[in-house]
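[retry 2/3] serine--tRNA ligase: previous attempt timed out, resubmitting with same input.
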Amino acid sequence: MLGAATLRPQWKAAIDLKWIRDNKDLVAANIRNRNSTANLELVLELYEDFCSLQKEVERMRGERNIVANKMKGRLDPSVRQALVEEGKNLKEALAALEEDLVVLTDKLQLEAQCIPNITHPDVPTGGEENSVVRHMVGNPPEFKFTAKDHIQLGKELDLFDFDSAAEVSGAKFYYLKNEAVLLEMALINWAISEVSSRGFTPLITPEIVRSSVVEKCGFQPRGDNTQVYSIEDSNQCLIGTAEIPVGGIHMDSIIPDSSLPLKYVAYSHCFRTEAGAAGSATRGLYRVHQFSKVEMFVFCRPNESNLYHEELVKIEEDLFASLGHWIWLQVTWVHQPIASLMWRRGCLAWKDMESASNCTDYQSRRLGIRYRPAPSDPSMAAPKKGKGGASSSPTQFVHTLNATACAVPRMIICLLENFQQEDGSVIIPEKLRPFMGGLCTISPKLKS
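[retry 2/3] serine--tRNA ligase: success.
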């Protein structure tokens, strides 16, 4: 019987423990570099115990089968009785070993699921100070007047109401007003239109998901430093990104090879605790508890994920560049594979704008998303008798990728601060004007 204190995993990732053992040094270095608390030595110790115990269970099962086969046919009663006793003893011993194996398997699974995904080899170790710039997009805006930050612009143009939102909901909430409402809707429709034209299927996702799905996507739904809002007395959470519900859309399924790649562009509201976020650079719309975002997501074959990662980064760059040369973007290797940083005129600093990540098979092993490769030999396409033909080829885990198409509040910051004019107005980029009823400029309101 499992002890009362024994923890059982609520879900099980298909972890390649042999690979972890064979690449111990790489995994250990990755754990250190990611400041993870995963206990690799314990995982390897438990894995060794698991392998030994599994062999012993298989050996004893073999002995039990041998005894069962010996009892077939006519036997002397004394011989049969001896075999019955031997079989009974083997059954009891095997049951105890199998119970131990269940307990050990659960413990190994829980510990191994704490090991983080291996980072891309080009990602630098350390914080933002160690980031490596790939290239720059656009040019820095040059103003012949004293530029304002988005908070001051929003106040003068009557676009935001932080004070009322703080009274109604608390700090880091906001009301959008007037043209800011049109601007948010325009950014969402523009991003979805642009990305879907490149072969991505548009989605609007659920914004409440099961905690297990959040965990399988690599996020921690509970804990002191979590960024996730959990719903009390339930197994559900508010999403912090559409990556989570889109990642789960093909959970526990086998995708036909002919369907890959699957590309989605998803709109959702996002909710984050923003624990520890403070300082002048995070004021206003930069770090808030609720916001809108358009997210790209790809399921693909493993040998193609690097190509799709570059495609996602290129789409992000194209989206920015299409809004005008005044947007200055720094594309950087930092933390995750790619982060795009916008130049914040209001605080004269580079700040995170969007990211693009290749999660390889980390999420798909946890979410149970596989595909069945098409046979490389065309002659194998026809089913062979008793073999199942093409359908018998072994399944593999897909690779998953995600990237930001438009984090709306941060894009609003970028547009206000970089497209402001000396008279206090803000020019609407041409690409967005059709989505704003042809509006070209946000102008100061006439005072009565």
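[retry 2/3] serine--tRNA ligase: The mean pLDDT is 85.
[retry 2/3] clearing retry counter.
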